[in-house]
From TrEMBL:
Protein name listed in UniProt: Protein GrpE
Coiled coil: none
Gene3D superfamilies: 3.90.20.20, Head domain of nucleotide exchange factor GrpE
Compositionally skewed regions (Polar residues) per UniProt: 1-29
BP GO annotations: protein folding
Alphabetical UniProt keywords: Chaperone, Cytoplasm, Stress response
Domain of life according to the entry: Bacteria
PROSITE patterns: GRPE
Function of the molecule: Participates actively in the response to hyperosmotic and heat shock by preventing the aggregation of stress-denatured proteins, in association with DnaK and GrpE. It is the nucleotide exchange factor for DnaK and may function as a thermosensor. Unfolded proteins bind initially to DnaJ; upon interaction with the DnaJ-bound protein, DnaK hydrolyzes its bound ATP, resulting in the formation of a stable complex. GrpE releases ADP from DnaK; ATP binding to DnaK triggers the release of the substrate protein, thus completing the reaction cycle.
Length: 183
């Protein structure tokens, strides 16, 4: 009886194996029935998808580059703005040192010599960072100078007296020179 049951179980397993093989063979036959046209359609579809993804990737790279450039421009602008504010504050110290030298008169004292050296050092440092004095020798220029009065001893359109020096930072005006102009 046990042998009969074992035999029946083996027969049942053999039948299942045969059914699986026939199902597998049928699936392989169905795959073999895939036509060349359908494969070419799939290839065309995949190529189209690939082109679309390449375009999306190129667009993403372009956008990333533009973002980096924009951030760099904004950082540079911010740096210039901070430098400009800092430079304007330092110009007050330059003015005060120049007034101290004028108040010292003609007598060369050690204190006056120290003030002159300090002013020279400060102006050298400012020049390293692109801060230069505005030209007041080559006549009046409304873009660089602010006329605050008329100097009767100066020629027409010439600068007679400079009341306060002007400064520019990398070609941009920080502060116009306050001058008196001839009439």
């Amino acid at each position: 009886m046990a042998t009969e049951q074992n035999q029946e179980a083996q027969d049942l397993q053999n039948e299942q194996a045969v059914e699986q093989q026939s199902a597998q063979t049928q699936a392989e036959n169905e795959q073999a029935e895939v036509t060349v046209d359908s494969l070419q359609e799939q290839i065309a579809q995949l190529e189209g998808d690939l082109k679309l993804e390449k375009a999306r990737t190129a667009n993403a790279v372009y956008e990333a580059q533009k973002s980096v450039e924009r951030i760099q421009r904004e950082a540079e602008k911010h740096k210039d703005t901070v430098l400009e504010k800092f430079a304007k504050e330092l110009l007050t110290s330059v003015d005060n040192l120049e007034r101290a030298i004028q108040a010292g008169g003609e007598e060369e004292t050690p204190v006056l010599e120290g003030v002159k050296l300090t002013l020279k050092s400060l102006l050298t440092t400012l020049e390293k960072f692109g801060i230069v004095e505005v030209d007041t020798i080559n006549g009046f220029n409304a873009d660089l100078h602010q006329a605050v009065g008329i100097d009767p001893n100066a020629k027409a359109n010439e600068i007679g007296t400079v009341l306060q020096k002007g400064y520019a930072l990398n070609g941009r005006l920080l502060r116009p020179a306050m001058v008196m102009v001839g009439a």
